[in-house]
Structure formats: C-alpha cells, structure tokens
Amino acid sequence: MIISDTYQFAFVHIPKCAGTSVRALLERYNEAPDAHTLDLAPHPTHENIVELPGLGFVDFHHLPLQALSAKFPEQIDKLRRYEAVTIAREPHDRLVSAFAEHMKRYRDTPLQNLSMDEVEHWLVKILAEVSAAFAQSPLLPYEFIHFQPQIDYIELNGERVIGNVFPISDMSGFEAKVREQFQLFGETPEGFGVGTSNVSLVHRSEILRRLIEFNRPIIRVIGRLVPQQKRAAWRELVYVTRQSRFASLATSEPVREFVRRHMSTDVKLWDEIRESNGR
After folding, report:
1. In contact, 237 and 106? CB cutoff 8 Å
2. Residue 194 · residue 87 · CB < 8 Å
3. In the prediction, which pLDDT does 31 show?
4. What percent of the chain has pLDDT over 90?
5. 97 with 19: CB under 8 angstroms?
6. 3-class state of residue 237 by DSSP
7. How sure is the predictor about 106, in pLDDT bands with cuts at 50, 70 and 90?
8. What is the Cα–Cα distance from 279 to 170, expressed in whole angstroms?
9. The pLDDT of residue 216 is above 90
10. DSSP labels, 89-124
11. CA-to-CA distance for 43 and 99, rounded, in angstroms?
12. What is the pTM of this model?
C-alpha cells in the first residue's frame, strides 16, 4: 500500500494485479509506516513476511482492509478521505496467476518445470488447501495471500472504501487518475508510465524446455552465433509469457468451481468495473 499525505493519495496493491510495477513507481511518495519503521519481526525465510501482534505472520504489502482496520485504523480513515485507487483483474485469470505465484514462492516448483498433467494435479491440490483455509478464516494465511478475494481490498464490511477501481486493461485510465490527483498539488509524478516489470517468460512447452536443457552447451554456441538483430525473434520462438502458456487453466473446471465458491463477489465486481469503464 502507498499512502501520500502530501498529495492526499493512496494506492492499494491487490495481489496479482500489476501492483509490482505501480509500487516501484509510487514508492518514493509513500508516507505510511513500513515494516522496518514499525520494527516488525521478519519471517526467518520469506521476504516481505512480518509478524503482526494478534495476526501472526502476514504479507505486509498485501494486507486486506479487514486486517488493516484491525491494526492500522488510521490508514483506513485516510483511504476514505484521500483519492484512493487500485487495479483489478478478471478473477479466473488472476486465480491462475495466484496459483503460479504460490508454486514458485512457497513450493519452490515453477509451473514451467512441470508437465501439464503435473500442473493440473498441483492445481487441484492447492485449491483444496486454499478452500480448507477459507473454512478456517476469511483472512487467508500469508502463504495463500495471493488467493485473497479482490473485494477484500476494496470493501470493508460492505462499505466501498476504495473509490477508483481500474481494470488491468485500462492502465492508461489509472495513470490519468494518478496524474490528475498529483497535479492538484502542482506535482507531476516523475517517470510515470506503468510497465510490466513482473511479467514472467517461460518456455513454450515442457518438451522444448527439456530439449534445450539437454542440449544446453550446443544452444549456447548457437546463441552466440545468432546476430544481435535476430535474437529477439529467436527468443519469441522459444519463450512465451507464463500467463499465455497456462491460459487454458483459467477455463478448467477446478478454477471455475473455486471462483464460484469463493470469488463470486469478485466476478460481480469485475462486471461492474468493465461496465463502468466501457470495456
């Protein structure tokens, strides 16, 4: 979360909604206390995970509004008073991205290293574990925070706290709103232009990955022989974004059923956002 008292502005970072790029841009304007300032005990192995009294270990960058209200009510008050913005994503696509992030971060098993059968097996297993966690508490433990519904970062006890919610497809509209708020105070955000710093590239297929790994010495020699101007085309033949390679998971029955059970409010929110943005 980014809160600027100077510019009466706040950005709420919903997990897996392009927030890494935005945080990197707006971090310089943040005036909210961070984990270091608050002297919170870090997790012994996981980055950005700290211990909050009464809540245990949490992902400090991704506190849902309920947790924020319990521990930092003054920040909730600022979200209500300031120009607060966030970015949302189509729920099924976001769920697949959350699954991939969890596998990489907490299982040390990047999806690109698995066959599709293995990916589907892990998908069912992890979604079952997240469902069990939901049965215990609406606030998911830190290792599942990327699965926390988007509505929990926008509404608090039925109240819409975040007034400006942009679909991930309308980053230009998001940028315009940020510029507008800063310009009220005679400031233009430096270097503004939301990129995709956290986009992951993976091999087009598991077979291709295995072939390249098996022939790595030869591939390195070939790579050095490819002219510089041809290397981009070479990379496009070998790699795709992680999202595109595993896009079919978004329409799979385990994902559809999970969204129906646990993220129906996110589906309604997404439809509302798309309609209000004319998309």
Report:
1. no
2. no
3. 95
4. 66
5. no
6. helix
7. very high
8. 9
9. no
10. --HHHHHHHHHHHHHHHHSS--GGGS-HHHHHHHHH
11. 22
12. 0.82
